Amino acid sequence: MKKIAFFKRSELTATLWAFRQEFLIVGVLSFLSNLLMLAPTIYMLQVYDRVLTSQSELTLIAVSLITLFLFGVMACSEWLRSRVLVKAGMRFDEQLSTRVFNASFEAYLSQSSTSPSRAFGDLIQIRQFLTGNGIFALFDAPWAPIYIAVTFLLHPWLGILSLIFAVVQAALAWFGHRHTVAPAEEAAKASSDTSSYLQSKLRNAEVLESMGMIGNLQKRWRLQHHDAMDKNASAQGLTHRVTAWSKFIRYSQQSLALGAGALLVIDGQLSPGAMIAANVLMGRALAPIDQLVGTWRSFVSTRAAFGRLERLLQGHPERDPALSRVAPTGAITLRGVVASAEGRNTPILKNISFAVAAGSVVAVLGPSGSGKSTLARALVGIWPELSGEVLLDDIPMERWSRTELGPHLGYLPQDVELFEGSIAENIARLGKVDSAKVIEAARCAGMHDMILRFPKGYDTPIGEAGGLLSGGQRQRIGLARAVYGEPALIVLDEPNANLDEAGENALLRTVQALKAKGKTVILITHRPGAIAVADRLIILRDGEIFADGPKDTVMPGLRPASPARPTRPPPPPAPPVTALESPQPA
User: Which of 171, 350, 400, 545 has its CA 20 to 30 A from that of 263?
Assistant: First the structure.
């Protein structure tokens, strides 16, 4: 029991271990396939030493038919093990794809360097290795000693020669492992970083084009690109040198084995058939090692992908299925919340504590950089580096099932992002479109009439019309998405930043309607019109609560007292007029 407790497999390793039956079947088929690889050698021995000596055509036909049958069995074994691995790879992907998606999404949300595309790329890399030539080389490698042993049976000197070449090939593989792993990983990371850098900047292509920044961006990208190319060239150069040496050893082995066999035949210690058979056996003995050298780069990449994926799954474990699934009322409580960010010496939010009763409308104000948007993300449970407690209905946010909680939360960020699909699908949060709820949400956001004026109404694709939408229209569609389904808690971060007077009036009516339905609304704003519908004000300054209380109590304290108008001193008396300064008559 202690040994079992001591050795605990990681989630990724345990998933691979679940396929041990498939790997066992592949091992048995590999055994059969490699065993039948001896058929050509035996056939050569029979033809050279038996058929040519006896001049018997019947013997030749019988030996040939038996060999063809064995070749057919070998081909079936090769095909079956390929099919087993392909199906195992598909099952492996099915078992881990959802898990990897959730873990990579959480990692991306927590501002980790892991992106979903990188995680799925690692999963595909592992799956392709499990179904490719690399795994076959691993299963065939144990047969190299058996082939060498058979070569020893033909003649000890040929066995020693094949053993020497096998050791040289293994040493070359070890050298490649020691000297190509780090450069290959560094080159792959540099290429990935360069690609990510360019993609992140091209999202702002309009800004780059309008202000002539493309040239400056190109210079920065070129530096990173050249560095990645240099590292890739260095890694590939070393790999190609290892491969070239491997080819040299393989071709030298074939020629030297044939020459050594010829010497033994001349000396009468070996038959011509055994000479040819020994040459074939040596080739078969070194083939798996040579194949390992050829697939070494793929193995290195797969090992790195395995490590990254393993760390991702360990860092973001699967959520407890017993998480709270009841519908919340919308009461939110913060206790000693401290929000930090990488690269900052001081926290963004410092010991924030307050409670909001269900059905309340709270306006959060503060200057830029005071932590308002960070507070909004903390309220919906998506800020990564957070300490303290965020409670929804007195239950910590991390104990809620996010899938079940999502429909009961509404969130409108400052930067509204609309997704590929129609307006109705965006309002319905990319789920099944409930027309009644979509129209109700659009009406609540004051967007219904405007949507009907679009070319296809609610079915207008965002991908086609996204460029035609103004900032206010995008924000109001985002507002409709936030209130879709009448969630219990709605957090709106600067919802009127891009709205005109009509849009702001629609927003105020939306907040009032939500309040009438008993929904909790956290309104982060700086406009006095939105403050008018709030029951309570929270003022943030430098990440701390500066003021908190009912609107009528907090607002007077924010207005500075009018300073007393200073009394002007009387003008000084006019100086006496002298004769030189006396006015002249006209």
Answer: 171
Question: Could you tell me if 142 and 325 are in contact, meaning their C-beta atoms sit under 8 angstroms apart?
Answer: no
Are residues 46 and 181 both part of a single domain? Answer: yes
Contact call for residues 208 and 217 (beta carbons, < 8 A) = yes
- What does the pLDDT look like over 271-307, one tens digit per residue? 777 787 777 778 777 777 777 766 776 777 788 888 8
Those residues with Cβ within 8 angstroms of residue 343's Cβ, 6 or more apart along the chain or in another chain: none
H helices present in 110-155, as ranges: 116-130, 133-140, 144-154
Q: Are residues 309 and 425 in the same domain?
A: no
Backbone torsions φ then ψ of 547, nearest 5 degrees = -150, 150
161 has a pLDDT exceeding 80: yes
Measure the CA–CA gap between 185 and 174, rounded to whole angstroms: 17
Given the structure tokens 């079956």, which residue do they identify?
80
Q: In 205-323, which ranges are continuous DSSP H helix?
A: 205-210, 214-266, 272-294, 296-315
- DSSP per-residue string spanning 268-282: TSS-HHHHHHHHHHH
CB 309 within 8 A of CB 119: yes
pLDDT score recorded for residue 564: 45
CATH at residue 547: 3.40.50.300
Q: Which residues span the domain enclosing 381?
A: 332-558
What's the confidence (pLDDT) of residue 208?
67
Quick one: which of 60, 42, 40 has its CA closest to 51? 60
pLDDT in tens, 420-473: 888 888 889 888 888 898 998 888 888 888 888 888 888 888 865 455 677 778
Total number of domains constituting the chain: 2
Same domain, 299 and 408: no
